[in-house]
Specification:
- By secondary structure, this protein is α/β, with parallel strands linked by helices.
- Among the domains are: about 130 residues, 3-Layer(aba) Sandwich (Rossmann fold); about 100 residues, GMP Synthetase, Chain A, domain 3.
- Helix content is about 30%, strand content about 25%.
- It contains 16 helices and 27 strands.
- The strands form five sheets. Strands 2-1-10-9-11-12-13-14-15 form a nine-stranded mixed beta sheet, sandwiched between helices. The protein has a seven-stranded mixed beta sheet with strand order 6-5-3-4-7-8-18, sandwiched between helices.
- Helix 2 crosses helix 3.
- The chain is globular.
- The mean pLDDT is about 90.
């Protein structure tokens, strides 16, 4: 892949599609109901056809295209096709309720929405009320939907849009310290840098690799794992649209025998707990096992190595940095640490004034490198706080050790990261507090028995009503929150500990929750 300089025109979609033989399989769709292989030649053709379709619909350069799909070939066509045309794909979670996407349409001012037929049915009546209703392309099973009617048999765009390396290329959405989703604007050079740094120096992706990730494409982590790292090397990708389930993941590992595997720590724990008799054979071809999204507990690293004889390469990245910038290395994994800076990045631990602290001292983590985002869309104050000159302040508390490795201590704010996804406690508290019988509540993060972060709802209710209130909380969270935002446990208290100014003492709650006697474990 070509590196971008200040003066050269570039199109990252064209760079990703450049390597590889037309006859080689690029995408392997493996859903519970459909199996489909897409050759690299077809991938190139579909991307160019989709780019041409956007042009026919009047989508112009730098206009946004909202992509709301499960992982599937059409997702890849949409992402690369929009960039090929000079438009800007915006990727958002596929786990939200259909009505939840309308604010994204409005904020992004999307001129096109590529989504499932079910989401489109909810959005289209609302979008028609707007002054400029976006075009909608739908994707259904078996190559059905309006997207396929627009591209099948239609001419393809010949030349990619010649962009500047600092032109906007795509957006990802991240939750910040306020919990309100923020559009993270990445430029053309971002992916080029990530491929040349982490992709080359840590993953060492080869054309004969097969990549499989349980993290979805709308994640910064999943986008690299299942799209630009393997495809930019001419390798193949396994796409699975369903939410993670241990049995299904073991089935795919057994049938597809990937060489690169990407997951978050909770997935590795679940795979260990549900390993089938043939598990050793299923992972035998893996040469890289990667963990990110949250720090990998040492216990999981050691348990996997003892069970399968393989090291899990733990690292730290962020949506704003695009991908991993701190990482252990193959053959040099130090459990309990995030490893060392990836070539192409500089990482420091600093104090509140931005001055580097001494080795072994706690401070704020900051990073600079060629994949750092341009900023947040319409979030000037948040941009000023996070993006300081060349540096990105990640919001993490960390220590650099004498051997040059880094250890993460937690967040500098109250945001929680669960299964690799940010969760805002006030959002969850709003749902819990609305439940009949809840007098007070606070949501905290607490390590579970596996050492992984779990959401815990700390609740005050009337004595004797705990069982009924717990059931109502479970129902309300199932109806009102995505799966990853639902508390794992409810702990009941007579009162919540507070400061003299009335603020809940969350650090006290974490200690009390570990010892809580009136605990209800609920579904997740």
């Amino acid at each position: 892949m070509l590196a971008a300089d200040e003066s050269s025109a570039v199109n990252v979609a064209a760079e990703i599609l450049r390597p590889g033989d037309d006859a080689a399989v690029a995408l392997r769709l493996r859903s519970e109901t459909e199996r489909l292989d897409v050759s690299r030649g077809e991938l190139r053709q579909r991307v160019r056809q989709l780019a041409a379709a956007l042009g026919r619909l009047g989508i112009q350069q730098e206009q946004r295209v909202l992509v709301v799909l499960p992982d599937c070939p059409e997702y890849v066509y949409a992402f690369l096709g929009a960039i090929w045309a000079g438009a800007v794909p915006v990727l958002v979670s596929s786990f939200l309720r259909p009505a939840d996407y309308l604010p994204f349409v409005r904020e992004t001012r999307a001129r096109a929405v590529i989504t499932s037929e079910g989401v489109a049915e909810v959005l289209e009546p609302e979008m028609r009320l707007g002054r400029l209703a976006p075009a909608v392309l739908t994707v259904g099973p078996g190559r059905s939907g309006s997207l396929w009617r627009e591209i099948e048999g239609e001419p393809a765009s010949r030349e990619p849009f010649a962009a500047h390396p600092d032109d906007p290329a795509f957006w990802l959405y991240s939750s910040g310290t306020t919990g309100r989703p923020k559009g993270v604007v990445h430029v053309q050079r971002s992916i080029l840098h990530a491929v040349e740094s982490y992709g080359r120096h840590v993953l060492g992706v080869r054309a004969d690799d097969v990549a499989y990730a349980t993290s979805k494409l709308f994640f910064a982590y999943g986008l690299g794992a299942s799209l630009y790292f393997p495809l930019a090397a001419g390798a193949a990708v396994v796409l699975s649209p369903e939410p993670f389930a241990p049995a299904r993941t073991w089935e795919i590992l057994s049938e597809e025998r990937p060489s690169l595997f990407f997951a978050v720590p909770a997935v590795y724990r679940a795979l260990l707990d549900h390993a089938p008799p043939h598990a050793d054979e299923a992972v035998a071809r893996l040469r890289r096992l990667v963990s990110a999204g949250e720090a990998l507990p040492e216990a999981i690293f050691l348990a996997w190595k003892e069970r399968f004889g393989q090291e899990i390469i733990d690292g730290l990245g962020s949506t704003e940095a695009l991908h991993v910038f701190l990482s252990n290395r193959p053959g040099d994994c130090i459990p309990g640490t995030l490893g060392r800076p990836v070539p192409g990045y500089e990482v420091q631990v600093v104090d509140e004034r931005g001055a580097p602290v001494a080795t072994g001292e706690v401070g704020q983590l900051r990073v600079r490198g060629g994949s750092i985002a341009a900023g947040y869309w319409q979030r000037a104050e948040a941009t000023r706080r996070a993006f300081r000159g060349e540096w990105l302040v990640t919001g993490d508390q960390a220590i650099e050790q004498t051997d040059g490795t880094f250890c993460l201590l937690g967040r500098t704010d109250d945001m929680l990261k669960v299964s690799g996804q940010w969760v805002s406690p006030p959002e969850v508290e709003g749902v819990v507090a609305a439940v009949a019988g809840v007098r007070e509540c606070a949501v905290i993060g607490c390590a579970g028995e596996s050492g992984l972060m779990e959401l815990v709802a700390c609740v005050v209710s009337l004595p004797g009503e705990e069982e009924a209130v717990g059931l109502r909380i479970e129902r309300a969270c199932a109806e009102g929150l995505p799966r990853f935002k639902r508390p794992k446990r409810v702990v009941f208290f007579a009162s919540l500990p507070r400061t003299a100014t009335g603020k809940v003492q969350r650090f006290v709650l974490r200690d009390l929750a570990r010892m809580g006697t009136r605990v209800r474990s609920i579904g997740s």
